[in-house]
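The following record pairs a protein chain with its ligand, thymidine-5'-phosphate.
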Amino acid sequence: MGIFITLEGIDGSGKTTVSGIISARLEKDGYKVMPVKEPTETPLGKFIRSEILCSGGAGAEDVLASLFLFSADRTVHIDKIKAELHRFDVIICDRFIDSTYAYQTAGLSGTDENKKLKEFILGVNEFILEQKKFSIDRTYLFDLEPEKALSRLNGRISKIDGFDSRPPGFFNSVRNNYLRLSEKYRERIKVIDASSPPENTADKIEADILKMLEKRINFTD
Ligand code: TMP
C-alpha cells in the first residue's frame, strides 16, 4: 500500500517545481510515483478552473458555493486515489483539503458567523476523510512571504493564481490560515521554508518521504 502526500502553500511557493524534482528522484530510486492535483483534470475540475478561478464567474465570491464545488471534486478524486494506492508507492497531490480552508476563508473578518463558517469548513474536510476512510500520511506546507512568491511568479502571472485580481493582503491571509492549520494538525503538517532553492527544499522532503517508505517496508515485512 502506497503513501499519500499533499503539498500546500500560496501560489508561487514552488510546490509544483519541487514536486517534479521529488517525483523524478524517487522514480530514479525505483519507486512508483503518481503526481496528481486539485482542482482535478475532470470536467468538474475544469469547470472550477474556468468558472470559479479564472472568470470570477458564478459562485466565485460565494464561500459555500466554492466549498461545495471543490469538495465535490475532491470526494470523487479520493476514490480514484484510493484505487491507485494499491499500484503506486507514493501519490503526491498538489493541493488538497487544506487549500479549501486556507483560500475559501481568506480575508473573512472575525465575526461569529465567519467563525462558524471556518469551523464548518474544517468539519466538512474531516467528514469527507472519515466517510471515505481515507487519510493523508503527510502534508508539506511550503511557507513563503507573498512578496517573494509574487516576485517568483513575475512574468508568468496567470488569472488562476489570482495575484492580479485578489485584494492586497489576501495572500497574507491565506498564509496565516495555513500556519493556523499547521498548529492544529501538528502531526500531519510539516512546515517547510520555501525561500531556499527548489533542490534544497526537495532534499528535505525527499528525506522525510524515504523515512516513511522505509517504515512502511519494515511494517509489511
Ligand atoms: P494551482 O493549480 O496553480 O495550484 O491553482 C489552483 C488555485 O485554486 C489556487 O489559487 C488555489 C485555488 N484553490 C482553492 O481556492 N480551493 C481549493 O480547495 C483548491 C484545491 C484550490
